[in-house]
From TrEMBL:
Pfam families: Abhydrolase_1, DUF1400. InterPro entries: AB_hydrolase_1, AB_hydrolase_fold, DUF1400. SUPFAM superfamilies: alpha/beta-Hydrolases. Residues 40-165 form the DUF1400 domain. It comes from the Bacteria. One of its GO terms (biological process) is lipid catabolic process. One of its GO terms (molecular function) is 1-alkyl-2-acetylglycerophosphocholine esterase activity. Keywords: Hydrolase, Lipid degradation, Lipid metabolism. Residues 247-354 form the AB hydrolase-1 domain. This is DUF1400 domain-containing protein. Gene3D superfamilies: alpha/beta hydrolase.
Amino acid sequence: MLKNRQNQFWSVLKKFYLFSLLFLIPGIAFNFFTATPTIAAEKITLSWGLLKFSLSVKSLETFARSGKVEPELNFFLTKIKPEQKQKIQNFLQAKYEVKPVTVARLAYTSVGTKLLQNLGEIIQTPQKENGFYSLRSAVILAAANPEGITPIALLNHLPTDIEINLVKLIKLAKQVNHLLQQTEQFVAHLDETNIREDAHQTNQIYQLKKAGKFKVEQQTIYLEDRQRNRSITLDLYLPKLTSTSIPVIIISNGLGARRDRFEELAQHLTSYGFAVIIPDHPGSDRERQLAFFQGLYRENFDAAEFINRPLDISFILDQLERSNQFQFNHLLNLKQVGIFGYSFGGATALSLAGAEINFEQLTKNCSSSTNLLNISLLYQCRALELSRKQVSLRDKRVKAVYLFVPFSNSLFGKAQMKQINIPVLWEASDQDIITPLLLEQLPSFSKLKTTNQYLVIATGMPHTYITRSKQQDKSAIKIRKVAEAYHRALSLIFFKTHLTNEEKYQHFLSPEFIHAIGENPYNLHLVDFK
């Protein structure tokens, strides 16, 4: 069953990359285009040096609608097996929901522009020029389709015929296939690991996923950082208990997330005796995203957020130290702070743990001609807009960090990651197309040299809980519930071990127990990877 699920995923992922390369982009990439075409494309030309082959858009549309293969299309499909033809037809019929306004705004961000320029090196104009402008003009009208965006709709809205550079396409396709094969082999090796489980473990896991003994109180606090001119809103979760001093865990969210995204996790940790804080980061939170989509900003987040996000958390801790005595009766132990960082929040957590941006490495990586295999690199490259002056954002009050699919590999080099000397639990996924396991997660984790570092790999988990495909709604709900259960158990084990130093939780950080937490087919593996 697991093997079948993995095969299905890799098939879908390969289609994703192919769709991206042909500007038939179902996932992330189709969010980056706008403009209004005046003349629709009629044909696609495939070029290999001096050799050229043409294919009409109409023949593809006919095949997608009825399965009928026109003579010109038969030339390309003649050696393909019937089941493969069916997959291609299904692919051409696929529909995805996307808001036209979202498309229009994201089209002109630096990330959207760079992505389109990379694609335009492969998908060119008939004059062999970069297809950037043609690509950008196609999707806005296709996105306005009431039934959702489709590959055929995208082609129909191209303002001119396109020419696909097969030499560059095949080169990139080989890179994609190599990446997929390596990842598949890596995961297959994990699944072959023989790990024994017992009934006692099952009962313990059940208890870890359940709420603890403390009732939870939640309050919203508004802070003003006048020095940086930032208004910070945070939700504070406190357990109802006596005067016992308790550690603090801060959850730093991903780009554009609301504070309640990890509310369930906050409630769970608080029920076990932690104080939990979920702040908004003003330059990259939900409100900032909404303002961006309203046209108030050119970019969907401020580059200064690489600095301001860690400073937000240090500021919050400073303010709580001032109010801890009279407002909380010394309840908060602000010398024992943990960070749970998701995606952008993971980079925030690493900065607070002591990592500094390596501008030399970042400049080199961002000069790569094609960043289509690692979308997160495009976001990391935004840090190049900052001053090259090194700034240490380390906060010594932070004693442990939990990282969930962070982007960090190009931001922080080996020397910078070696500066981290606190416990780190790093959760990655084999199905992350935003921060790929082998390109982003493993290389970055391997730079760590701290005493207590744990790499947990979840199979079958995407980077985000959100899906735009109508057919994946039920699956997304299931994945979200499983991921939340994993976070409840893993974060509790990790922070109980390294913030409150409770020895009874230490033995849970073992390959056997971590594997037992997993729910097939979304398995968990604690990996010895250095």
